[in-house]
Amino acid sequence: MIEGLDVRKALTGWAVIGFVVVALISGPTPVAATSGDRVAASASSRAPRWPAPSPDRVVELVTAAGLVPETAESLQYHVHAHLDVFVNGRHQTVPAGIGIDTTDPAVHKGTIDSQPAYGGISVPCAQPCISPLHTHAVTGILHTESATRVDNTLGQFFTEWDVPLSAQCVDKYCTPRTRIAIYVNGRRQRFANAARIALSNHKEIALVIGRPPSHIPRTAHFSQV
User: pTM higher than 0.85 for the full model?
Assistant: First the structure.
């Protein structure tokens, strides 16, 4: 469930009572993700294109992540982590709609600051359409909305995003050729263990590829969640 601002004020063309969205940005304002082929290169070249996967692949990728797609959000266990991705110091967008079949008619759609947002399934989808791990908007918030009290992992999220994450690489960026670092709440962690990072509540995760930004975020603005 998206939380924070009343959508009747925040969303365009979205008449859903109780569906709200987080007004949260912990780094520079992200640029909207675009579709198209990903750029395979070292960190010295232009930024990668990592759009949300096409809706017809959502169930496949959720299953590949070891999760069970559902017909609506389950709120028995509801926590939020935040992900920042930097490539050569530039903040990259974590797209909206990861883990959600955004074409399903039961999935509500709208815009926030001219960016897409999805979710707030009040009437369940006819078929599984949403992962218990997903993004509603381009805020970088990773939502766990699950029937079981288990933290998902960063590796599961990257599987849903269809961006390969291994002990040495993020997509085509690999150590030692490219510097890759991972931080949790501002503290550097061993990158080889990045996929195992638990997405527990209010955890700030920063993935840094190539040149680091001037500031590594230590927290995100979870006050409205």
Answer: no
